[in-house]
Records
---
Amino acid sequence: MIPAAILATAGTALVTAMVTDGWEGVRKKVAQWFGRGKQDDTDRALAELDQARTALTTATGAALDRARMVQEIIWRTRMGDLASRDEAAAAALPALVQELQALTSAVAGHIEQHATASGNAQQAVLGQGTQTNTFGGQGGTS
């Protein structure tokens, strides 16, 4: 059984990769993973991946956030279903996820984020990958 953390990462990495310039490079590999050597299944996966990408690239604002969430759930579920039925697919999933993550981290590059709060405000900073968080401002309070 594939751990839930890998499936969550797989769904996020796949959806993130869909909106990168490098998507075409991994699109076929993802479809082949879903197809498991059956051309009809591979073609069906290609069509579904294209529909998902269109849903993401045509949405904006809150609709984009919803579309990302929905697509992550859909693809995480589909990957989990296949991996639970096919041992070879389950064994190949971590390498596929690693490739998707490499694509998205190469595209993202270095991101710097600054957040300021005062008084009794609280903040949450969310991201993935390597993060360095520094607390305390110029005044030395946090």
Note: Residues 119 and 142 are 10 Å apart (CA to CA).
---
Amino acid sequence: MARRVGRRRRFALARGPDPIAAAHAAWAELRATLADIGVSLAGAESPRAAAGRLAIGRALDPVAGSGLRVVALAEERARYAASPGVDGDLPTALRAARAGLLAGTSRGRRCWIALAPPSVIHNVSVALAEGYQRLQVTMASISRALRFRRVADPKPRA
């Protein structure tokens, strides 16, 4: 359910009037789809280079490859161009890219994606780890404050 809600929100943003927000939303949805099918993107790889590598490596059909390139180019323009823009219908390109990427995935993997999407599981685990880290910092500061108070204001002994 969380994956479906996130996908709808990102597609709505991809249809929106702001080209930067649209490109980032489409790219985020593409990255979530890649995480679900078990493909990771290199951090130093540009969106266009990643799209080229994926189109060849996953043997995407021309429509899916074209959609992937449109999404990648929109993301690159949103990141680096003085005037960002999109060459084509971004939601349609995103749908084509997702369909092509999911078509090369086994039925078992698609069922797993529907039941427990790895992109959502990853986000939940990251959020839990960050929450745990914040709790540790808070507890340490409380401990320091209590220790300081005991030393600074000792009670007289009888």
Note: Residues 2-116 form one domain.
